[in-house]
Design goal:
The protein is of the alpha/beta class. The chain contains eleven helices and 18 strands. The longest helix has 18 residues.
Length: about 425
């Protein structure tokens, strides 16, 4: 069924008895044209665009848990395209444009809120770095603006502008950035893919990737063997584990990244703010809770939970930039498993095994990339060739010395 103001009114008048399930719960077929391993934002968007744009509907999305139980529901909901290097800049801007029309596209309220994303700077060198990034964005046709302290005080008066250690000297804002309801993204893509004939199969864990004669033939799962002409990996923090089933060793480490939500309070901040002198970022949800996060936990892990030392570290960063939140009680926290590549940029590419495709290495950029990731991945799978937007996101870039070191903290920091 299609959602509209009229349908909501009609359901209200008829006792809300006509709402249908968002997607089916089918039994897996014996064979598919494409199997997508992973039912998160990237896997579901890939299935959606395969069906919508390429007419490939004999597709199964295999999820070992439930839809929305992985990283797509374990993040701080921020979307932006304020990158600097060419391949990342154009890719994330494609994602930003897809976010802007997403709700109308798949007829589902994902609560896209373009409230702006502000990166604070606290020193002259940092101002220069942000000005450089903003200029690169503007040259690519992406909105960017440097803010003075006076402009920031008007926009976000709750910030501590007189902090002795980290005085706020300004900020870089992308006004089109903002937040999106994370699990609604999963539900909307799942509903859209299912309505086009895609099978979304939950509680179906992939145990092995089957190969013969240098090509993929299917997967072995907790619900039996399923054959497929093509298999696409889309499993975020478990990318290394799933790739190992096909004999592939990847330049990826898995780490926990914690996120936090406070108790609900009255409106305090109506934009997204990131602290430039420490890794801390914050926004306020429509329910009133402050949503914030910071650094990785710093050790390899597959656990979807964090630890107290990093929790304290994140709180300290928040107090440094916004002391007023010290009186607010934390309501809950959780962890997502991040597949960290060595240069901070992702992989969307074919593998050496014919019919087997790789999507991973998203680091901090996974949620905001979901629309463009699925759009480009679907093109790569359907055409067995990359789209220009993802042709740089290959694993062999490390062999060729073509790293995309966006943050300047990888093996070649001097490129920044």
């Amino acid at each position: 069924m299609r959602y509209s103001a009229l349908s909501v009114l009609w359901q209200g008048l008829t006792g809300h008895k006509g709402w249908t399930r968002q997607w089916r719960d089918p039994e897996p077929k014996k064979e598919y044209d494409v199997i997508i391993i992973g039912g998160g934002g990237h896997g579901l968007s890939t299935a959606y665009y395969l069906a919508k744009l390429h007419g490939i509907t004999n597709v199964a999305v295999l999820e070992k848990g439930w839809i929305g139980g992985g990283n797509v529901g374990r993040n701080t909901t921020i979307v932006r395209s304020n990158y600097m290097l060419g391949p990342n800049t154009h890719f994330y801007e494609k994602s930003m444009k897809l976010w802007e029309g997403l709700e109308q596209d798949f007829n589902f309220n994902a609560m896209v809120s373009q409230r702006g994303v502000i990166n604070l700077f606290h020193s002259d060198p940092q101002r220069d770095a942000f000005a450089r990034r903003g200029n690169a964005m503007r040259m690519a046709g992406i909105d960017a603006e440097l803010l003075t302290p006076a402009q920031l005080k008007k926009m976000v008066p709750i910030l501590d502008f007189e902090n002795a250690r980290f005085p706020i000297q300004g900020g870089l804002i992308q006004r089109r950035g903002g937040t999106v309801r994370h699990d609604a993204v999963a539900w909307g893509y799942a509903r859209g893919a299912d309505s086009r004939g895609v099978d979304i199969i939950q509680n179906c864990e992939v145990k092995n990737i089957l190969r013969s004669g240098g090509r993929v033939t299917g997967v072995e799962t907790s619900r039996g063997t399923i054959k497929a002409k093509k298999v696409a990996m889309c499993v975020a923090g478990h990318t290394s584990q799933v790739a190992a089933m096909a004999g592939i060793k990847l330049p990826i480490e898995s780490h926990v990244l914690q996120a936090f939500v406070s108790e609900g309070i009255k409106p305090l901040i109506d934009t997204v703010v990131t602290f430039g002198a420490g890794h801390f970022y914050i926004s306020q949800s429509d329910k009133g809770g402050l949503v914030y996060g910071g650094d990785l936990d710093g050790y390899n892990s597959y656990a979807q939970r964090g630890n107290l030392p990093m929790m304290e570290h994140v709180m300290a960063g928040g107090m440094a930039v916004m002391p007023a939140i010290g009186r607010v009680r934390m309501l809950r926290h959780w962890g997502g498993i991040m597949d960290m590549s060595f240069d901070g940029s992702p992989f969307i590419c074919k593998t050496d095994t014919k019919g087997l495709y790789l999507n991973g290495g998203w680091c901090y950029g996974g949620f905001k990339a979901a629309p463009a990731s699925g759009w480009c991945y679907a093109h790569t799978i359907a055409n067995d060739a990359p789209h220009p937007l993802n042709e740089a996101f290959t694993v062999d870039r490390f062999k060729k010395g073509r790293m995309l070191d966006e943050k300047g903290v990888g093996p070649n920091p001097w490129i920044q």
